[in-house]
Structures are given as structure tokens and as C-alpha cells.
Amino acid sequence: KYEELDQVVIGVCGGDGIGPAITGQAQRILEFLLADALKSGKVAFKTVDGLTIENRAKANKAIPDDVLAELKTCHVILKGPTTTPRKGDPWPNIESANVAMRKELDLFANVRPVSVPEQGIDWTFFRENTEGSYVLGSKGMHIDEDIAMDFTVTTTQGSERIARAAFEFAKKNGKKRVTCVTKANIIKTTDGKFLDICKDMAKEYPEIDFDDWYIDIMTAKLIDEKRRKDFQVFVLPNLYGDILTDEAAEFQGGVGTAGSANIGKRYAMFEAIHGSAPRMVEEGRDIYADPSSVIRAGAMLLAHIGYGVQADKLFKALEICGQTEKKIETTGRDTGATSAQFADYIMETIEKL
Amino acid sequence: KYEELDQVVIGVCGGDGIGPAITGQAQRILEFLLADALKSGKVAFKTVDGLTIENRAKANKAIPDDVLAELKTCHVILKGPTTTPRKGDPWPNIESANVAMRKELDLFANVRPVSVPEQGIDWTFFRENTEGSYVLGSKGMHIDEDIAMDFTVTTTQGSERIARAAFEFAKKNGKKRVTCVTKANIIKTTDGKFLDICKDMAKEYPEIDFDDWYIDIMTAKLIDEKRRKDFQVFVLPNLYGDILTDEAAEFQGGVGTAGSANIGKRYAMFEAIHGSAPRMVEEGRDIYADPSSVIRAGAMLLAHIGYGVQADKLFKALEICGQTEKKIETTGRDTGATSAQFADYIMETIEKL
Ligand SMILES: CC(C)[C@H](C(=O)O)[C@@H](O)C(=O)O
Ligand SMILES: CC(C)[C@H](C(=O)O)[C@@H](O)C(=O)O
């Protein structure tokens, strides 16, 4: 659908801490790869820099209204890490900005690929991204001084659309199996509903194997070198998706190496899934921050908006700089490469491809 | 406290499927180790064989009343695996028997040790065992056709007693750190309460380091060979305990090798944490079932009731038979050792210690 637009607007939302620095480097690389499209006006960048913890605290809102309005003028968004207040922090108890953005822009599918070719790992996670344990996360109740309650909500529509996304992805990419992960033996009503919907949908895809596991044992299966190769596409409620994708990313080098795509019908947002490292900024070391996660998110963004060739080049360059040339290992340390130098390596590598 | 009793009654509850067969082998070993105490009457065994899926289905209850009454005449219980009905099974939608037993006997602490000396892993998990996402697990609501809801409940008393157990264990065993794992950034009210209580209690133990992590990133940290050695004692709400202990057990050889202690003020129950494998029974192969998990649970039981010397011998024998002599590897297969032969190996090994 992006091909039909006169201009695709890419919002760049730096976030907090090291966010603006590393997101800026990712933008440099995207500009380099999209030079022609920028010149012809097919693509434009738009900086959205109001999503900071200071602004959010002032507005006492996860996303201030004016920032949300700006985000809604973009088609796709590249987002750096944002600070989520913890108890004891000087900020009011506002919701996490990425969780709020997922809800506000209805980004229902959190898609996270994890690939470790040499270990036979090639997984794609479809995490439901707008409901489950997250939807009323800030609306739990203190029944009295001693009893606290939280709520989980699962809807038919919410489960169907993520299940559909997972099965369609499997079908289009020739994957043989879709695996649903819940805790439906205990959390019977919501997880039971999610599982039933996935099971029903599986009947529409007779060429794809379907199986289901409980989240506890699945965290063990991912480690089992004999079994983990059997899995290809996962579909999971929000909380289990959150948990299992962090575990999975570890095999690939940690959450710092993983990008996360948040896809809705109308908008899509691509983000780094590490923290904002405020201490690096305080100490003036943010120029050394490792930009590879947000650069990877940028590559996912490129693929999503139809620049597949450019995306592939960027993925390849990330692999070469990270694994073969080990350039990535020195980034993030004061004695190593800066974010800008790392971005330079990436662009030089792309030129040599 | 067991030393003060005239007689400690050990209930043996075989459960379903392969349960009675493997639990019987564990009982043989305990009888062997406790021969003197049995002769003097300090210890007695009591068979509780009514906890079968057939009886539970007939009573339409997770634990039939007469079985519960029998269990309550025991001081400690050794429990085999029980079948939990899944949708589509011929049984009514009754609750899991072990979850029900944890609630009915108020076994609030689920203690799971995981140890892999050659990898520097020596973890003890204190999983809250009676509330959280489990307490109203069967009482979710279908708000309407399209909206399902589940509830999580955390109480002050429930959180305090598990936190106390973890810190006291750490103190008594010279552990340097207690780590709390929640998802308090999202599930703010219940997990927030749990975390606050742990944080407060940490102040009473200034000699012990306290840290807290979110469950998503913690599943990654357990895999990180550099970081995982830093953790010693974990304290977690029910659901995260369920998830993280299965992952952790994988490093030690899988959930089949782990035993689980469910401890309350009045009762304690020790169980295998694998399934009941009904198919092995149907095919007449239950004599080959691997009894090592329930034997390990038996060793934990011995330690708990004050037979530390016997417990240590059994742990040692399990290690020798499992890791050094690899006897355990052939068990569980039709061509290998039977459960009874494995139990024989264990007893022969103990005699040689
Ligand atoms: C930062 C946090 C709120 C977020 C989540 O829980 O979804 C993160 O862990 C993620 O996976 O994107
Ligand atoms: C069988 C299941 C209900 C149980 C649980 O979820 O607690 C099991 O996974 C465990 O960890 O003992």
C-alpha cells in the first residue's frame, strides 16, 4: 500500500537518553540508502522530538497530545528508547511511551525475527501488542490495604487479527509450522480464548502444522538444541510475547541486537528494544552508544515500506560489521568506536556490497 | 519441628499415568534409607491412592473431599504427576490437582533448586505458590461473546511470607544476593506491591544484596554465561516462578530432572514436575518410566523432615547414576533400564557410598 502514496513520511522520534544520538545515526544511514527517493520526494523524513520524559512528565501523559498529533501525520515511525518511570524516579507514574504508542496507533502486531543461522534458529514471533495483561496495566485496583488486583483482557477481534497475521506470514514465506504459546491450563478464560481462536484459524491453513505449548515449558524448549529448530513462527498473547522474545534475542546476541516492528492497519513503528541509558548521557558518553538495534529497526522499516533491496543491504552490512568484522564489539565503550563511526562503517560496507 | 513429633507420616500419592509406578520406586528408596526410623515407628508411610483423574472427574473436584481429608492426616506428601484436563479431553474442566493442593494445604512456598556446578549455576527459586495469576485462574469472566477477562490477586501477607522465606534461606545459607523478578513496569498494582514488599524486607537484611529485574530480560540473563553466575536466590510471583523455573531446569537437564518442594506452615508436598504420560501406560511401557524427578522430590522431602544425612546420600547417588554412570540416560526407553532397575542402581550406589 505504500507504493500507492505520493510520499511516505518517516517520523523519527529520538526518545530519551542515548535515543536521539543513536536514532540520528540510523537516520543518516536511511538517508544514504534512500537518497534517490528523497530527491524525488517519494520519501520524506520528519523529526518528532517532543517524546521526552520531561515533556511527558509535564503533560502527565504517556504521549502528550501535540506529540501524538505529530506522530499521526507520519506513515511509519522510527523510534529510539524512551524512559519508563520506575517507582522512586522523580517522574509521575506515567505509562511506558512505547506501550502507549502501540495502543494509540493501534499497532496490534509486534513482529520480532530472531535468526542464528549457524544454530539452525530462524524464528519469527507474532506478539499480540495491544491487549492481554497490558491493556489495563495502569488500571489495577487496591481492593484494600492488603489486596491488590490486576486485570487481563483478551478480545475475539484482538486475537483473530494477530493469529491471521501469523498464519498469513507463514503461508507467504513457506513456513511449515505455527506455534501458539499460552498458559491456558491456568489462565483459562483469556488464554483459553486466544488458543481456541488460533486453533480454529489453523483449520483454514491445512498446509501449515499447528501446535500449542505452555509458556513455562516453551522457555525450556528454546534452549534445547535438538528441539528448537522445529519452531518457525510463534503467535502469543502480549505478556508471553514480551518474555519469550527477550529470551530468544539472547541467542542472537542479546536484546541490544534485536529490532522490533509494531504494525497496525494504518501506522507502523520500528524501535530499538533496549533502554535509554540515561547515565551514558549524564557522563557525556552518549557518543559511544551502540546504535545497532535502532539501525536494525531502520532496516525493518525499509523492508516494510517496500525498499526491500535497501533493507537487505542494511541487514547484510549489520551482519558483516557485527559478526565478521566485529566492529560492533568496540562500540558502546569509551575506548571503542563512536556511534557515528559505527554508522560510517555500515555505509562503507554497503558501498562495497 | 518434625523432630518433636512422635511419628512423621509420609503420604504417598501416586497420581495418574506413570505416577504410581515411579512414585512406588521412590517410596522403595525412601523405605530403604529410613529403615531404622520405620522400625522404631518414628516414620510411617501412608498410601493415598484416590487422587486419580477418574475419581476427580466423578467428584467434579480438583481434589475429592475424602482424598483431601486423607492428605490432611499426613505431615508431608510425596506426589507423582497428575493429569490436568485440557479442552477436548473426556474429563470435566476441573482444576489442576497440584495447584489445588497448593491452595488447600496452603503450601505458599514453591522452592526449586537448580544446580549445575560445572557452569557455576547454583540457584534457588522461591516461587509464591498460592496467589497471583493462579488464585482466580478458573474464575475468569466472559464479559460478552467477544471479551474475556482474567484476574491477578496479590496480598500483603502472601507476598511477605514468600519474601521472608527467601531472605531467611539466603541468610541461613550464606547467600550474598536475593533477586526479585516481576513485571512491575506494566502489571503495576500487583507486581508493584510484590516488589515493594520485597524491597522493604531487604532493608532488614543489610548483609544481603538485593536487586530486581523484569521477567522478560531475566529469561535472557539466565542464558548469559557471564551474568547468570551472579544470581543466587530468586523470589517471584507465581506465574513468573512457573516460567523461570522451567527455563532454569533446562540447564540441569530438563524439568524431568527437577524436583519441586511446596512448603506451608503446616504441610509440605514434594512432587515431580513432569507430566503423567498416559500414553506410556496405555502402551504398557510404564515400567520404563524415568523415576528420577520424583526420587529427587523424595530426597528434598528427606532433607525437609530432618533426615539430612539420608537426603545427601540420595542426592549424591542421583548425581552419580545420572551424570557419571549415565544410567539415567537409558531409563525412559523400552530398550533401557526399567524404573525398578534404576531404583536398584540408586540403592546399590548408596550402599557403596
Ligand atoms: C519497556 C517495556 C514496557 C516493553 C514491554 O513490556 O513491552 C519492552 O519490554 C518491550 O518488549 O518492548
Ligand atoms: C501443571 C501446571 C499446572 C503447574 C503450574 O503451572 O504450576 C506446573 O507447570 C508446575 O510448575 O508445577
Automatic annotation (TrEMBL), chains A, B:
Keywords for this protein: Oxidoreductase
Family annotation (Gene3D superfamilies): Isopropylmalate Dehydrogenase (3.40.718.10)
GO biological process, one term: isocitrate metabolic process
Isopropylmalate dehydrogenase-like domain sequence ranges: 9-346
The keyword Zinc appears for this protein: no
GO molecular function annotations of the record: isocitrate dehydrogenase (NAD+) activity
UniProt similarity note: Belongs to the isocitrate and isopropylmalate dehydrogenases family.
Name recorded for this polypeptide: Isocitrate/isopropylmalate dehydrogenase family protein
Species: Anaerotalea alkaliphila
